[in-house]
Amino acid sequence: MSAPLIPIAGLSVSSREEMGAALQQGGCSKSSCGSSAGPADMDPATWAKVKDHPCYSEEAHHYFARMHVAVAPACNIQCNYCNRKFDCANESRPGVVSERLTPEQAARKVLAVAAEVPQLSVLGIAGPGDAAYDWRKTRATFAQVAERLPDIKLCLSSNGLALPDHVEEIVAMNIDHVTITINAIDPEIGAQIVPWIFYQGKRRTGIEAATILRDRQLQALEMLTEKGVLVKVNSVLIPGINDDHLIEVNKAVKARGAFLHNIMPLISDPAHGTHFGLTGQRGPTAAELKKVQDACAGGANLMRHCRQCRADAVGLLGEDRGQEFTLDKLPEVIEDAPEARDAYRAWVAEERKDRAAAAEHADAAAAATEAPTLFAVCTRGSGRINLHFGKATEFQIYEADADGIRFVGHRRADNYCLGGYGDEDRMGEIIRVLADVPYVLCQKIGEGPRASLAKYGIEAIDSLGEDYIETAIAAVLQSRAARAAKRA
Length: 488
Ligand code: CLF
Ligand code: SF4
Hints:
Its cofactor is [4Fe-4S] cluster. The protein is an alpha/beta fold. The chain is 34% helix and 15% strand. The chain binds FE(8)-S(7) cluster and iron/sulfur cluster. Residues 75, 77-79, 82, 88-90, 127, 129-130, 159 line the site of iron/sulfur cluster. The site of FE(8)-S(7) cluster has 19 residues, from strand 1, strand 3, strand 4 and strand 5.
């Protein structure tokens, strides 16, 4: 979604109602997947670490923003899906070159964003090369930010090769969240994805390289989890290479204490100039991705709300305000506003209680649902139906069945609304994307698009705007059940 976050100036923090109203103008429950677990599902110390982290908690991604700074350009391996001209594809979309920053510039940028965006809770370093290999710059950046913004969580993403060398410092610096990209634990498969590594002053290739990389990744995972660091494992799903194998990866990382497993689709395009792009290796379809995710059920908890964001992304997941905070746009004098972040977090705490109570009622209403039903939700955050259909560039997909209502993923679609005029090609794309979804919940929709959706059996509902997502879904289910009872 491209809806803006709320600038401090637009927020009145004097009351919960005002904060809520401001959010509705500006600005993504429970489920079986681990990333959406709540305080009842984990110990208080772990909950305290994840509750404001938009990637580690599905619920938090409705409320909190992250930002990345591109300070670490060097990398010690070669992935076949990477072109070094672009950012590290292990944690971001390829094809986007972010502004390279010194640690000092990066710290300034984080200060500027924190002063403007009260939703900011996490600073991530995910490249553009490898944050653990380019450790000096990563460390300097984190140290400066920790000193000036102690309430911002630090998050690091790495291919894992250099990671074991920095575990002690990572722990000492309170970096509670680390991502390791592990695409294979079988070196025969790993060698098809990473042709070479640079390790202990030597370039190594083939099975030898894949074995060293795998061993270092698993070693880092064990060392970090032993120290209480929450480790997320990213795996890039590459059809025909590691699709069947990712179940083994899931088991191996679960056994070593991984908090989450994020299975991401390969993005492959000849224009990116990567080995896979140039050799025609395709990415998975949505159905192939879901099949692998479903096959991993019962193993390490899966993250399903990753947006493969840019390495200089700023904002809620799925949203990108990076271009508003380029170096040339930063103000001369930056005044921090910690009280606005505190007020926002207090508001979210209250809002979460309300939403949890509403979701409980909604689950009870969903219990009578006979067959699983999918809903496409237009939202700009806060867990509510608060986005016009025409402004939605992605839809959050919820499923309701006898077990309750839960988030199951998101689907991207191009922006249909261009100055109020419809674009049939884009509408066609939305219809393709939502082919198996009978209901769209949005704040508002025009009669044209409503009729177009109806032609394909998709009912658009805009009478439940501003409701919590779960409450709105329960209302639709109840009304459907009442209509069915009347007909019987
Ligand atoms: Fe950034 Fe990654 Fe930290 Fe999040 S992103 S370093 S854990 S703060 Fe998040 Fe973006 Fe997916 Fe990454 S949605 S690509 S998982
Ligand atoms: Fe590229 Fe990241 Fe792989 Fe390095 S670790 S080669 S930057 S995708």
